[in-house]
Design brief:
By secondary structure, the protein is α/β, with parallel strands linked by helices. It contains 15 helices and 13 strands. Helix 3 runs parallel beside helix 12, helix 4 packs across helix 11 and helix 13 packs across helix 15. Its cofactor is pyridoxal 5'-phosphate.
Length: 367
């Protein structure tokens, strides 16, 4: 995408009066104005995370997840490398069991192997979470079993609670550790209907993001026991993640935990309403149906380019933002990830269907 096309898209999204999927981007001034309203402005900034907002954020996340400790990282990619390295050194095994559609494989440039020297074992290549039986059938030793909650690229898919417990037990039986790629753990918890400490307690380590759902500028935390805590701090430094100060990201994350985290179950419930309405569009497919988190995949029988153009026209002419990020999944069939947040709560099922039909009208006009 050229800079002009990107600027046009962002301008249209910011000017939209209604947003179904995603959220409006904020200017630097708007983000600074938000920071100026948060608690903690009169305390000294953190210094290498030793006190201040970062220390409070680490303590709060550990409390929420029920772990002994949580360590701040500037990115989830860095946090996950450290978690998998820890598992390899603790078990003496350089293999990692993970899904080929996982974030580690597709979106982190295989950092776990390129920088840490680990190798992957794939229990399955099917577009769904792997099962306990598939994990047990690997027939090779591995140090860590990685479970992405949810498996985003397969449609934000989650196992059932019993299936998840079975996977954990299979990994334990193989003498391996369990790591949850929980970049969207906050959004996954409602599906399981269990308290966060019970969910996180299944794993030896859990990575959570503080910018996706919680609205911080960046950052992640790696939670686990005291041994992981010390190891993670040492390797964070070696990876270049021992930044001088992170107070702005930490304050925003603390605010997100206090204000946004309680709203997420409502987003998950509303995603089901949105998906049901979208399923009525001609040729539409929803994956999964119903959604298991606040996000899901929408497929429509039109080229991605046409749908993107129609979405932009709808935003610029009627100030209604439907969805962006369309990609061609198959010839004549495009997919977009629908992410339901605060802006979508005002949409009724009738609103969703009407906007979808209007989008398709604009697509038809292009022919």
């Amino acid at each position: 995408m050229t800079s002009n096309a990107r600027d046009r898209r962002l301008t249209a999204l910011r000017a939209s009066e209604r947003v179904l999927s995603g959220k409006r981007p904020q200017t630097v001034r708007e983000q600074l104005d938000r920071l100026a309203t948060l608690d903690g402005l009169d305390e000294l900034p953190d210094s290498y995370g030793e006190f201040g907002a970062i220390a409070r954020l680490e303590q709060r996340v550990a409390e929420l997840l029920g772990t002994e400790a949580a360590v701040w990282f500037p990115s989830g990619t860095m946090a996950q490398q450290v978690a998998l390295r820890f598992g390899a050194e603790l078990t003496g095994r350089d293999a990692v069991a993970l899904h080929p559609m996982s974030h580690l494989e597709r979106w982190e440039r295989q950092a776990y192997s390129q920088l840490t020297g680990l190798r992957a074992l794939w229990p399955t290549a099917a577009p769904r979470p792997y099962t306990a039986e598939e994990l047990a059938g690997l027939g090779q030793p591995y140090g860590t079993a990685v479970v992405e909650l949810p498996l985003r690229d397969a449609g934000f898919l989650l196992p059932s609670w019993d299936e998840l417990v079975a996977v954990v037990e299979a990994a334990r039986a193989a003498g391996a550790r369990v790591h949850f790629d929980g970049a969207r753990l906050w959004e996954s918890a409602p599906h399981f209907g269990r308290p966060l400490p019970e969910l996180a307690g299944l794993a030896d380590s859990v990575y959570v993001s503080v910018y996706k759902a919680l609205g911080s500028s960046h950052g992640a935390l790696l939670a686990g026991n005291a041994a992981l805590d010390g190891y993670a701090r040492s390797w964070r430094h070696r990876h270049g993640g021992q930044l001088w100060t992170n107070w702005a990201a930490a304050l925003a994350a603390l605010d997100g935990l206090a204000t946004e985290l309680p709203r997420i179950p409502g987003y998950v419930r509303h995603a089901k309403l949105v998906a049901t309405a979208l399923a009525e569009l001609p040729g539409a497919r929803i994956n999964p149906a119903p959604p298991q988190t606040e996000s899901f995949q929408l497929y429509l029988p039109h080229p991605a380019e046409a749908l993107s153009a129609a979405n932009l026209e709808l935003a610029e002419t009627e100030r209604t933002w439907f969805a962006t990020g369309w990609t061609d999944a198959l010839p004549g069939l495009a997919m977009a990830e629908i992410r339901v947040g605060a802006d979508a709560l005002e949409w009724t099922a009738e609103d969703v269907l009407a906007a979808g039909l209007r989008l398709l009208e604009l697509v038809a006009k292009q022919r």
